[in-house]
Design a protein that fits this description.
Layout: H1 4-24, H2 32-62, H3 64-80, H4 84-103, H5 110-118, H6 121-126, E1 136-138, H7 143-153, E2 162-166, E3 172-177, E4 200-205, E5 208-211, E6 215-218, H8 219-223, H9 231-253, H10 263-266, E7 268-272, H11 283-292, H12 295-298, E8 303-307, H13 309-315, E9 327-328, E10 338-339, E11 344-346, E12 358-364, E13 368-381, H14 384-387, E14 391-404, E15 411-415
Parallel strand pairs: 2-13, 7-15, 8-11
Antiparallel strand pairs: 1-13, 3-4, 5-14, 6-14, 8-12, 9-10, 12-15, 13-14
Helix pairs in contact: 1-2, 4-5, 7-9
């Protein structure tokens, strides 16, 4: 298999070739022949993209051991920044927690159980306590951060949102203000200036409790702890993927009542498709959606599109009035693919185009805020229901919230027609 760098170089060369054809064949120079050449290059780019995705997936599989080493390095750096007493406490806690994962409470010393029940460093400082009554403990210092990094790797909303982390889960008031319609004035000599205070509001970020659902690990994996096997990283990744999927769905389309408010839910209508566009969109719709967002937001570096990958497939086929594609391939990660000159984020929890679906977002995506509470609890189950199958069960709990925190309308949606 060709290495990832070579594939990316190949893609960049094709992107430059397409961009050169577009830049040098404007106006009357544009022809069906040039259009066919550009379309053929785009098909080749799609093929290379598929190869890159396969290569990256294999690299992730091959890199699990390396990822464990990086996590260990990160933990060492965290410990190095602690006071000696805190460092000693954290090291004892981490060692006890690892023994808990491998052997459960029955395989732990009284000192290790007491260390876990006393809580990790950050929770000891805040007065929180671990609870081992049902076989669960707060994860060690750094472990929660690594889990949250794994959540970010899932992509989607976490790639574009404003993310904050708090030690506790108490309601967090957040100020909002909309100044897009406020302007100054000309004042004549010796005339007082007019008062026009900005109208501030407040919204709250809470904390919804999420579980990974119980997942199992065979005895053999816990017992065969040799080189190249990081059982903590394995458990962390399994828990993170499950929590990442449901939180990304809620951060995208959550109702905002018994779950976080999704960015789609919080967005305003920018353009509703005309009758006959229940599963389609055209260039004019995208232009109308773009200009439905105030220019004050459109000028921000975090402005862009968001849609499902199936929607991107349709958008890649759209052309402007001269037959030139709206989608342009990027040369590198610093110059990503763009749609009508704006970056886009693929989010597989966005609705696909269907009747009444809010299938495309445009605006300042960074206006969406995600709150992570840095207290993650891991439970271990070794009762007969698992033992008779040769397995140990694990369950992770974490808390999160998300909301479009603004008094304005920085994000608008395109809604497909009903019929």
């Amino acid at each position: 298999m060709m290495n990832i760098k070579a594939l990316r170089d190949q893609r960049a060369a094709k992107a430059k070739e397409a961009r050169n054809l577009l830049d040098t064949n404007t106006g009357d120079k544009w022809s069906k022949d040039i259009e066919a050449q550009v379309d053929a290059i785009y098909e080749e780019i799609d093929r290379i993209d598929a190869q890159i995705q396969r290569a990256e997936r294999q690299a992730r599989i091959d890199g699990d051991a390396a990822a464990g080493e990086l996590a260990e390095d990160q933990r060492e750096r965290t410990l190095a920044n602690m006071a000696p007493e805190q460092r000693e406490h954290a090291q004892r806690y981490s060692a006890a927690f690892r023994n808990f994962i491998l052997n459960g409470e029955r395989g732990m010393t009284d000192e290790e159980v007491q260390a876990l029940r006393a809580g990790s460093v950050q929770n000891a400082q805040s007065g929180s306590q671990s609870s081992g009554a049902a076989g669960g403990y707060l994860v060690p210092t750094g472990w929660g951060g690594e889990l949250l990094e794994a959540l970010k790797a899932f992509g989607g909303m976490r790639n574009v949102a404003n993310i904050i982390a708090t030690s506790g889960g108490n309601p967090l008031p957040w100020p909002t203000v909309d100044e897009t319609a406020i302007e100054g004035e000309i004042v004549a000599e010796n005339t007082a200036a007019t008062d026009q205070d900005a109208t501030f509001g407040t919204t709250q970020l809470g904390s919804y409790k999420y579980s990974s659902k119980v997942f199992t690990i065979p005895f053999e994996l816990l017992q065969d702890q040799g080189s190249g096997i990081d059982i903590e990283a394995f458990i962390r990744r399994a828990a993170a993927l499950r929590i990442a999927r449901i939180t990304n769905r809620h951060f995208t389309v959550g109702a905002g009542t018994t779950e976080p408010q999704g960015i789609v839910t919080g967005s305003a209508a920018g353009k509703i498709g005309a009758t006959g566009k229940a599963s389609s969109v055209d260039t004019d719709d995208l232009t109308d959606l773009e200009h439905s967002v105030d220019p004050a937001y459109r000028s921000l570096p975090s402005v862009g599109w968001m849609f499902h990958d199936n929607t991107l497939r349709s958008l890649k086929k759209l052309k402007d009035g001269e037959g030139r594609p709206l989608w342009l391939p990027g040369f590198s990660t610093k110059e990503p693919d763009v749609l009508m000159g704006y970056r886009y984020e693929i989010n597989q929890h966005m609705p696909t185009m269907a009747a009444n679906a809010k299938s495309i977002l445009f605006g300042d995506l960074n206006s969406y805020m995600i709150r992570d509470i840095m207290q993650v609890t891991l439970f271990r189950f070794d009762d007969s229901a698992f033992i008779r199958k040769g397995q140990i069960g694990f369950l992770a709990w974490s808390r999160h919230d998300g909301k479009l925190v603004t008094a304005g309308q920085p994000v608008k949606h395109f809604q497909n027609s009903a019929t």
